[in-house]
Amino acid sequence: MNKHNFSAGPCVLPEPVLRKAADAVVDFNGIGYSLIEISHRSSDFVAVMDQARQLVLELMGLQEKGYEVLFLHGGASLEFLMVAYNLLETKAGYINTGTWSDKAIKEARLFGEVVEVASSKDKDYTYIPKGFKVPADLDYLHMTTNNTVYGTQFREIPETKVPLVADMSSDIFSRTLDFSRFGLIYAGAQKNMGPAGVTLVVIKKDILGRVTRKIPSMLDYQVHISKESMYNTPPVFAVYTSLLTLEWLRDLGGIAAIEELNEKKAKLLYSEIDLNPLFRGFVEKEDRSYMNATFDLTQPDLKETFDALWKEAGIRGLNGHRSVGGYRASMYNALSLESVGVLVDVMSDLERRA
Ligand SMILES: *Cc1c(COP(=O)(O)O)cnc(C)c1O
After folding, report:
1. Model confidence over 67-87: pLDDT tens digits?
2. Active site amino acids
3. Residue ending a domain, choose from 220, 252, 284
């Protein structure tokens, strides 16, 4: 079957990862027991957790730089409040690039003063704010590196003296960055790393312990660090499948290798959007996301024909987010260049017919 999965999340995972994960559900590493029926404190699973934590640091080039890796429950949405709970004493800065930043801001306001340092709301979040000043008296600055809904992505990471916190849910491990510029990085696994159910958090340990409020144990990063993500039962299947994806990425050549492929995919699709008169992109060209391309038809009456064509080609998950409409092609790490080629062929086929 032709399978071209452009879903925004949960999303496409590498075929060999799915097979290994499926095998482990029946018999994990040949031990005769399922991964999901053994103790998370058994040496078999503890090894999984240790390897996953190590591999995250290795891929990001963060070994021996004072960072800790956590695998938590609750999705990126729980991190919206955990970040503020653990880091916001008086005042935090947020860059508002739309849905997700908005939600993070809403939670942070429960804990202290929030300054919107920059926002692209004036133009429906179709660009990435630039050239703004970051006040020096913030507890931290929060950004969303890639906006999954609007299809915008920061190319430059803002300069700050205060700890930088980033929601990288939809572009984690997709491109090389100097990860040591971040104090805290979080990401729901289901966009680019694994199945839903686990959230990756990478924290520079020295930014913690500065707030005076009492923090409930399950929401306290320091508790999870001291228990090595085993304060309570971790989502074992999601952690294991994430490890498999990270190993797949390492064997491919790491983040630099996948970045090259991701750039090729994005260039192929965006050049079709720009050259084909039947399509237009939603956002500023220089701020386009390499992960989520948002676009629409210039002739709405072609919708039925276009939808039938891409569905016939085996494409799935191309509808835009309900708040934006149009189309969204999510091109996460495991989506092949061939799949993008199939979409581009369908788009040029539509032009030939019209
Ligand atoms: C999907 C997404 C979220 C929400 O993630 P959950 O794991 O569902 O809570 C947050 N931020 C960004 C950038 C996302 O793409």
Report:
1. 999 999 999 999 999 999 999
2. 100, 167, 191
3. 252
